[in-house]
Amino acid sequence: MSDPMNGAESLVRTLVAGGVEVCFTNPGTSEMHFVAALDRVEGMACALFLFEGGATGAADGYARMADKPASTLLHLGPGLANGLANLHNARRARSMMVNIVGEHATYHRSYDAPLTSDIEALAGTVSAWTRPGPSAAEIGRDGAAAIAASRTAPGGIATLILPADTAWEPGGGIAPVPVIPDRARAADMAVRQAAEALASGEPALLFLGDRAVRGEGKRIAARIAAKTGARLMAMQANARIDRGAGSVPIERLPYPIDQAIAALAPYRRVILVGATRPVGFFAYPGKPSVLTHEQAETLTLATPEEDQIEALERLAEAVGAPATVEMPIPPRPTLPDSGPLADDAIGPVLGALIPEGAVICDESLTTGRNFFAATHGAAPHSWLQLSGGAIGVGIPLATGAAIAARDRKVVNLQADGSALYTAQALWTQARERLDVVTLIWSNRAYAILRGELANVGARNPGPKALGMLSLDDPPVDWVSLARGYGVEARRVETLPAFIDVFRHALARPGPFLIEVAL
């Protein structure tokens, strides 16, 4: 006679039955019954991370590519706290995630053991749904509710707290996932007002985000633009954009505030489609928080919670947009054959060599600001960005994306300073034998902050200030670091060497890191 199903197994089996197929984890003592259940239950793959920020960042990357949630498994409040920065990024990306956080046994909490903390308060800062799970008999139902909450538009983090005794006591079996509502329909008035704005004769902008920057959304927006003369622009940071040859080329709102203000200055009608209002990333002395022109009217066609594709179709019909438009096909860049290894040479190399179907995970920050223009004509690919501004997501994001899309090459465009936050995820890439090429832009500095010194009006920085933005004393040896985690690596210092090694890395399976000396 088999042992009865405990709460942990009830939860795992419910997750698997609800379509959750991967658990990104860094477990501890309170989660051991869940770990044992993962071993007993078929259908749930497990990916171990050496730091919780790697696990949460990977769950984000997985969701962006799989369009469904994975699970995390984190150890108590401190483990959750270690993962919070990348949970913040996942929240901003509206990534679906079932976040399982272990907790002390219910009767043990009152003794204030060293790892006791307010897990609900921590989880509430990043979660769309949070629930303690004090009952083993009900934990399956709690897990099913978490799946539904994570998948409810626009997608979000559902955090379920799992006390140790809930995990080990007899469970209540597998629970069905509640019905997940469809995305809401945008209001007819919103479509009518957008159509009127486009017919006003004033310069108009369709400002796109969320599902509107995927393939179908951009195609419909291009039809509307062809009819009305409106321009298209994507938000500065997007969870995923489908790009490359055959796709509608679209630029993002620039990050530097003066460039962003200049980019938006011509428009008097700004129509948001799955996007949030364009505001400054930070406040700067003497500069506005809202980046649109002071005379511009901002309207919302469809929010991230609403069906942006259907709303765009109704708007296209309302303005009499053509059924199709001829897509401009930017040329694929030719490889540069000479010159220094610098930012403006890297973009064309990427544009020429990105393989078809690749997934680009971009945490380039300063180095990669102009990569979009050079890669419009690249082979078709998906582009994932740092969405919440909390650096340290790039390597984990690429790791999760590679697990979600094992048949696609993943290329991580990675600033060196932010890579150091979660470099441990390279070890998971080696362990899982993931097909990821990491390009480290090794300028040995927090280069973005050097520009911000001037932007915020901090004058005449001296050696102490500049020293806090420098990573060259001592320099990080990325080749040795990567090899220490089990990832093959090379350093390149010239443009021809970069092209040769990048080609080699793309042609072979498994993880590979290239330190690009800038």
UniProtKB/TrEMBL annotation:
EC number per UniProt: 2.2.1.6
UniProt keyword terms in alphabetical order: Thiamine pyrophosphate, Transferase
Record protein name field: Acetolactate synthase large subunit IlvX
UniProt cross-references to Pfam families, sorted A to Z: TPP_enzyme_C, TPP_enzyme_N
InterPro entries: THDP-binding, Thiamin_PyroP_enz_TPP-bd_dom, TPP_enz, TPP_enzyme_TPP-bd
Alphabetical list of CDD domains matching this protein: TPP_BFDC, TPP_PYR_POX_like
Family: Belongs to the TPP enzyme family.
Gene that this sequence comes from: ilvX
Domain Thiamine pyrophosphate enzyme TPP-binding span(s) in chain numbering: 379-516
Protein source organism: Methylobacterium symbioticum
Domain of life: Bacteria
Molecular function in Gene Ontology: acetolactate synthase activity; flavin adenine dinucleotide binding; thiamine pyrophosphate binding
Coiled coil: none
Record domain Thiamine pyrophosphate enzyme N-terminal TPP-binding: where: 5-110
Gene3D superfamilies according to UniProt: 3.40.50.970
Biological process annotations from GO: small molecule metabolic process
